[in-house]
Description:
The chain is an alpha/beta fold. It is built from seven helices and nine strands, in the order E-H-E-E-E-H-E-E-H-E-H-E-H-E-H-H. Strands 5-8-7-6-9 form a five-stranded mixed barrel, surrounded by five helices.
Amino acid sequence: MATPHIKASENDFAPTVLMPGDPLRAKFIAEKYLNKTRLINDVRGMLGYTGEYKGKQVSVMGSGMGMPSIGIYSYELYHFYHVETIIRIGSCGAYHENVHVRDLIIAMGASTNSNFAVQYDLSGTFAPLADFNLVAKAKQLAEHKGAVAHIGNILSSDIFYDANPDTWKKWAAMGVLGVEMESAALYMNAAKAGKKALGIFTVSDHFILDEMTTSDEREKTFTSMMEIALELA
């Protein structure tokens, strides 16, 4: 029952899918944490795996970069593969001095500069939110691990290289903790489908402080958020 973007069979995915942006991070998670792992998708190089974590079926698949990409994959997982929960595990940039590189951000809400919600023909502005029980459990797991976790609003931006380098300051002034590029679309797809979603992020770089990580570190060392997501699953 392949879709245009996923070649897996109907029952190949577990009810919960971990979704990093980078397919190589999906591969890393599958090889490091899952047992009885099998590759279920490699269309366009977007690697997807299903295996067992502590005896329970869990899937992990990349989403690519940006809301159009995760919008496609999460829609197909929710609507065609009977997935109930998608947990995005990604990197983000921090907007505030009290949020440091390698801290976690649990995104209770996802603001956006995208037009993704236009398709719903709403008469106002939709506020995309995570599933509250997932937020609460993720915070509890982070505390148990001793990880520094901030809960709040994230910006899902369509723009990486902004022509106005100070745009971020207006979002920061509204209490937005940091920026990534996918979660608002994921949260909206979940809301429309009546499913669950959560974004957990590791801060990889900073808009104020001289702090950043390498691409290899982002792929292989952001293990706290991976382990929290696996425990949620």
